[in-house]
Amino acid sequence: MGKITNIWPHDLLTFTNDDDLILEENPLPEWAKDSLSKAKIVVVRRGQFKNGLIPVGLRGYERNQRLAGYLKKSSIVKQYHPDYFIKHESWCDLPIERQKLIAFQALVKIAPLLTDYQWGISGSLAYEMATGVKMVKESPEHTSDLDLIMPDLPKMNVAEARKFLARLNQFCTHADVQVVYGENGFSLEEYALGRDQQILIKTATGPILSENPWQAIKER
Amino acid sequence: MEKLHFEYQNSTPVKKFAHVGVVASGDLEILVYPADGEKTTLDITTGSDGFEKVWQNVLDRFFARYPLNGKFIVHDFGATPGVVNLRLTQAMEALKDEK
Questions:
Q1: Most exposed among A78, A110, A186, B90, judged by the fewest C-beta atoms under 10 Å?
Q2: For residues A58 and A49, what is the distance between their CA atoms, to the nearest angstrom?
C-alpha cells in the first residue's frame, strides 16, 4: 500500500496493535474485544482530525455494537476507500456461499448500472470484503442494506433521483445512496422524497439543513 | 433493538401531521401527530441500545425551547444526538409551514 495521503469518512483502516486505537469506553465491552480479535479494522467517522488522531468507529456484528474512538494516523497499515471494492470486484474473493447472499447478489447486479459514475460501498458489505469476517446479514428480520457512497454525483432533479434510486432498488435489498463531496454528504433518498424544503447534510462539524444540498455540500 | 417511551407536559398543541427524516444508517425518521391526550408522548424504536440518558438530554433540551404537545413516533437508525436535534427542529418547522 502506498503512502496515506487522504483519509475520508467511510474509509476502512487496518492497524496492528489494539493499543493504536483509543476508544471511548474502558474497559472494552466483550463484543469489542471479540471484534478486535477477529480483525483490526475501523471505519473513519466524520469529525475533526487532531494531533494525528483520526475519528473512527469500531463495529461488532449487531447493529447496537458500535464504539467511537481515534486511531493514530501513523499506525494505519492499510486503507480501503469505498471504491476499492468495486475496482477490485472484491466480492469474487468471498466464499461462494457468502457471494450468494441477497446483499452481495444485489451489489453484483448494481455494478454494471453504475459504470458511468464514481461510486463505492461502505457498511457491512465493505467490512466483510475487507476482512472476510461474516458481517452481512440475511434473515427474515433483517437483510443488510447496500450503503452506496457516490462522490461528485451530477445534480439531479427530484424525479430523476427517484428514477435513479428505483433502478438500484430492484434487487430485493435496500440501496441507500449517500451523495458525498469531501467530508460532507446527504441522503439521495431524502432528496428524492421531495417532501421537505430542507435536506439534512452531514458535515465534519455536525449536521445542517439546506434547501440546496447539491450546492451546500460543496460550500462547507 | 430497544423501545423507549418518554412523556412530557407541553403547552403548544400540534394540529397537523408531520413526517421528517429517512430510514438510513446514522439517521432517523420522526412522525408527529396531534396528542392523544394531555401528555406529549414519544415512542422511540432504536437499533442502538443503552442510550436512554442521551435521548432524555436531547429531548429535555428540545422541549424546553419548543414545548410541542403531540404524539411522536421515532424510528432511529443510529443517529447522533446532533442529527436527532436537527430532525426535531425540522419537524417543528414542518408543523409551522403547514399552518
A1: A78
A2: 17
Catalytic residues of A: 145, 147
pLDDT digits (tens, 9 = 90+) for A112-167: 999 999 999 999 999 999 999 999 999 888 889 999 999 989 999 999 999 999 99
Largest CA distance in chain A: 50
Chain B: residue whose CA lies nearest to A64: B48
Q: Report the CATH number at residue B17.
A: 3.30.230
CB contact under 8 A, B86 and A207: yes
Q: Domain range for residue B87? A: 2-97
User: What H or E segment, with its residue span, contains residue A56?
Assistant: strand A53-59
- pLDDT tens-digit series, residues B56-91: 999 999 999 999 999 999 999 989 999 999 999 999
This model of the complex carries an ipTM of 0.80
Number of C-alpha atoms within 13 angstroms, CB side, residue A187? 26
pLDDT > 60? residue A70: yes
